Amino acid sequence: MSSKNLKIFAYIVKYGLFVLPAMSLIIAGSLFFPFITGKNFFFRIGVEILLFFWIFLALFDRNYRPQKSPLLIILTALAVILSLATIFGENPYRSFWSNFERMEGLLSHLHLFAYFLILTSVFKKEKDFKRFFIALLGISVIVSVYGYLQLFEKIPAHQGAKLDATFGNSTYLAVYILFHLFIAGWLILKSRSKLFKGILVFLVLFEVPIIYFTTTRGTILGLASGLLIFALLVLIFSKSKKARLTSMGFLAVIFILAALLVSFKDSSFIKTRPALNKLASISFTEGSVEARLTIWKMSVQAFKEHPILGWGPENFNLVFNKYYQPNLWSKEPWFDRAHNVVFDWLIAAGILGLAAYLGIFILSFYILWRGYKRGRLNLAEAALFISLLTAYGFHNLFVFDNIVSYFLFFTVLGYVHYRYTSISDSNQKSPLSNGQYNSFKYLISSLVLFGVISSLYFANIKPMMAGKQLINTLKNFSSKGQDVDFIIKDFDKIFNYKTFATPEVREQLSSYANSVAAINISEGDKLKALQKAIEEMEKQIKEFPQDARYYIFLSTLYQKIGQLDRALDAINKALELSPKKQQARFVLADIYLASNQLGKAFEILKETYDLDQNYSEAAKNLAIVAILNNQEDYAAELLKKHFGAAIIADNQFINAYARVGNYKKVKEIWQLFIEKEPNNIQYHVSLAATHIQLGERQEAIKTLEKAIEANPQFKQQGEYYINELKAGRTP
After folding, report:
1. Residue 653 pLDDT exceeds 80
2. Among candidate residues 470, 540, 545, the one with its CA nearest the CA of residue 503
């Protein structure tokens, strides 16, 4: 290949890297999970295209081949370990592909590794990283402006009151800004221009509040821990008295602020500020903290089962099902992450995966400190990147990564790798021999081209088309949902793509079938939708038999078509996989109720309630079945304990009391409904009907008269009912 062509390729790769940070701006409204999928597909496609050109460069020009470093070795080891964990894991398919909600399977990690290789092979000078970091900051300004527009309610936040900018998740936004604060700090250290330094300082002051207003506690604490480490390193190792005094002052401020936060945690000033209140109210009994602790205990149990290579990437949902604890139901019934980087890696890739992941941080710290000791890095620069990695690591003790945080992490690792190779004695040695086998190189290039094209189509284009079709199908629910044939054809279009989207699509189909079963359409159409959903969910279970959720879906669908035996088999399988899962137990109770096995229904619901007596929904379900079992006093006790009254305004209790013929209780419940909504005509009519059931015709007339008084538009119909009652007839 000519040198001219190689230069063109080098230009494409080098400046193509500058396009990748733009993924942070992408909100793909036409795709399923628009804040996740669009960014991931953009990154994957970009890396795959750059990979093709880079491999050409690496084959024909040894200057574009990666240089050895401890980071390259450990990242290679991590890629190998993740591959083995995927192959030998519980669900290799999911481990490789992940799903639309996360897109963090082995495939994504391989793309990140490829990005690291490309980045470190073409960025050979500090100015390359400097320009790249400036580009990163430029994108971050746009993201921050978006966040401020949400803060001032010019555009809506996607998570309610929390800022989430282009990420759809406040935590993802917070860690994104966290990286850029430290990157801006590095550029401040490196810049000689007072004007540029001033701009960067303004940028830092502009973006810091974004983290605060996300109210993301882990990131705020991570930022504080990073700054603390930076100040300590300067205090201990700096030879400048001024720098040490400044660090001491900064540390004093941190400790004073922490003390004030604790001392005044109950003040109105703290209570009325969400971020400060979350920081001040940290305790082991707090709901979210308690949930995390429970999940971490479950993770330890699961780790003991597969200690070496774990369960495989993206398989935490299986752990959550198997070791599920009932106290989690009211907090989060389905977890697919441990919300802690240590336990996430232990489950994903075992002790080997965790060791490799932690090794990345250890080696990065070593390289940075080595650079400082050799005089190739000043203390502030080394301390800054050590602090950034510390802040990021601390943040990940409470949450988990996404493609953008991984991208920024690998970018920083690329710079650390550069610092190692720039100070290494082996830097001048060629990593590989150039060789003269040009025909062989062209063969390799052709194979790479074929692989890239295949990946572009199968790993990106087809899933994107499936995601787009799924969005269109979901939109059609509202306008054409009653046209079952039309919707089924829509779903078939998605299934025909044969992508990793299929499991999620099957779940959506099940939801659709359940919703159709509850609307006023022909029984034939209902059956058609339900049978299609059953067919697909049976395929899902055949392909992935380890997930309790699929059996719950299937059992519910079987119930809808009256196949109670099959429904029972499916839910019992779900309970084998997740014995303490309340949702599965509720479905089992429904099956017993449908088959008129009231005693068994009561038994299973009593066991479920005893698993976690703080869960009011379990208490309510048990009370309903207690009524059906003629244990009304017990039901009243449960309701008093959890709701403060022996009866509550709930249609399920109306149905239960009506089923056992206790219309006095039915009457009392309708009266509760009317107290809440006195102008609701249907409530008045239902109460009047209950009076009739009790032989209280005069009371029924009075109720209807009150209904007319409350809503004159009901006068004609109401008077008709009243006249019928007065005539001795039942309207």
Report:
1. yes
2. 540
Q: One-letter amino acid identity for 171?
A: T
Give the other-Cβ count within 10 Å of 575's Cβ: 20
287 touches 72 (CB < 8 A)? no
What distance in Å separates the CA atoms of residue 420 and residue 377, rounded to the nearest whole number? 10
Q: Are 164 and 150 in contact (CB under 8 A)?
A: yes
Contact at 8 Å (CB) between 310 and 78?
no
pTM over 0.85: yes
Q: Is the pLDDT of residue 556 over 90?
A: yes
C-beta separation of 669 from 649 below 8 A: yes
- State residue 428's pLDDT score: 44
Contacts for 554 with CB less than 8 Å, ≥ 6 apart: 534, 537, 538, 541, 570
Residue 159: DSSP 8-state: B
Radius of gyration of the chain (CA): 31
Residue 516 has pLDDT above 60, yes or no: yes
According to CATH, the superfamily of the domain at 647-731 is Tetratricopeptide repeat domain (1.25.40.10)
Rounded Cα distance between 549 and 537, Å, is 11
Cα gap 731→725, rounded to integer Å: 7
- DSSP-assigned letter for residue 460: I
Q: Report the Cα 33 to chain-centroid distance in Å.
A: 10
The C-alpha angle 544, 587, 100, rounded to 5 degrees, equals 40
Q: What confidence tens digit (pLDDT) does each residue in 29-50 have?
A: 999 999 999 999 999 999 999 9
> Domain-by-domain residue ranges, the chain?
647-731
Element (H, E) at 516: helix 502-516
Task: Indicate the DSSP class of residue 161.
Answer: T
Cα distances (Å, whole numbers) of residue 414 to 71, 174, 252, 462, 684: 9, 22, 34, 31, 71
Cβ-based neighbours of 504, under 8 Å, separated by 6 or more: 32, 99, 100, 101, 470
Return mean pLDDT, the chain. 92
